[in-house]
Design a protein that fits this description.
11 helices; mainly alpha; single chain; 3-stranded mixed β-sheet; two-stranded antiparallel sheet; elongated
Amino acid sequence: MAHKPGTPPKADLPPYFNIDPAEAAAKLADPIDTARFAKAASFAMRGRDDLARRGYAPDGAKRLRRFSTWEVCRYLIPVNPAHLRRVLRQNPDLPQGEGEGGSKWFTLEEVLRLRDHFAEEGAKDREYRAWRPEGLPAKVVAVANFKGGVGKTSTCAHLAMSAALDGYKVLVIDLDSQGSMTSIMGGKVEDEWQTVFPMLARDYARHLQQENKVREAAGQKPFQFDETLTAALEVSPRNLVQKTHWPNIDLIGAQLNLYWAEFQVPVWRMQMLSWPLWDALTNALEEGGDAG
């Protein structure tokens, strides 16, 4: 920059705290690119899966433990142990459990079968099955908190397992890209297209379709559909649900790639402020499994 005539030129600024900027910059490592982040994510995922597998059976699958006669009669079916043993002797087609003498162990599948039997043949003044009024929709329970480490995953797991032990059918939806709940339930998720992400994308795509009809009627240029939104329209929510080691708990799992939704969803919201994001998941569940 030229200086005014008659004034001496300004000297270069001295190093800040005796640090030469050019020299310091030369010592920095190469910038971290997306490939480095992907590699770190891959290492983290393998480490998490290794820890999870330590609680699995030798074949890599989780197993739900059996329940003793005392546990069945104390917590799961309101019958006396002696009466349960008498009913089993009289009905050899019912699950007999494993073990010798009066000490038997039953799987949860067997407990559910016994529940059905007592609901038909047991005392009329007792509730053997899970109570649900006819015609009412399933209950939706959300466990959420902006703070980390406050027990969201543990609370959700206990609610799901408690409801399952009571005999209810449960669908667990993991919305956390850490995937801890998915690991607890023994789920396997390959990429974000096996998470809730395509359900959100499908809801946004359908909203965009409706908006384009309005824009075309007004003579305006319609919004374009990219490859993600086009593919999401073909996804069925039913294809995202997987079985777990609990006979009456299903799962829509999560994995690290779901973190991408935290960047993509705001982009959709900026493009279409009228999109009711908070209804997207409920809409997908209420519409059932029809794709397109």
